[in-house]
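Changelog excerpt

This revision adds worked examples to the README so contributors can see how folded entries look when concatenated. The first example is reproduced verbatim below.
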Amino acid sequence: MKLIQPSLSTINFWMTIEDTDKLEYALAHGNYKTRKLAAEALEKIAKPCSIPALLKCINDKVQNVSIACLNALGKISPNDELIKTVVNKRFNWVKNVREKRAKFEANKHVKHTIYRWERASKKSFDRVKEQLKRPMR
């Protein structure tokens, strides 16, 4: 079953009439663009009744959607200590992921020298082989 995704004008219309139920449904069941637009619209409406839907979507697999949800939560309830700690921890996690990705991209073309240690068994095998090549007295 294919769901029809609401357009930007539809989401803007829902935002102007403050229809949080439809925006929360779009946030839960839309594609990633729709989810991001719905989170931004809920941020502009800033009604506390949409906090549970935003909390469900902060662990979205698309980072832009989870960041939009975090921004909306930060604007809707800036004085709530629980939401402050959740938002700060999540933003730190996103920052760490981006730093790791940037570090990987920066070092992608660097060639590393790998040192191979000599194995004692190979060294002794070569020594015995050389002794066998010599004539016996």
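The second example, added in the same revision:
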Amino acid sequence: MCDESGGQLLWQDDFCRIILADEPDYPGFLRVILNAHVKEMSDLPPAEQQRLLQAVLTTESALREVMAPDKVNLASLGNVVPHLHWHVIPRYADDPHFPDPVWGGRKRDTPHAAPAGLDAQLTAALSRRLGRARETE
């Protein structure tokens, strides 16, 4: 996650980036990825912890505006990829795993439908909340 975007880049600044993950069962599955290689939230100074958490919460708000999910799941695992990132996952009563975690046993075969232009809508909602995306150096 240090050297690659990790998905379709929707927004970034010098601190973090927000990507649309390639998760066919979960359209709108977003990741907020810290740009610096850090393993745990507690490895960050308090101001950076707050900055990252604010990015996660803002991402959740943008996702709710665009997709109106029944629930949003937030997760920071990193067991396989020990690089600080947060999953922001829209959940619907008809999604393949509901009410279980997205990593649990499958209950249905069909994912919830994605709205048309999802990536553009999410990019616009994130930009309204976080400001215009800036290139990292």
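Reviewer comment on example two: The chain has one domain: 8-130. Residues 65 and 125 are 8 Å apart (CA to CA).
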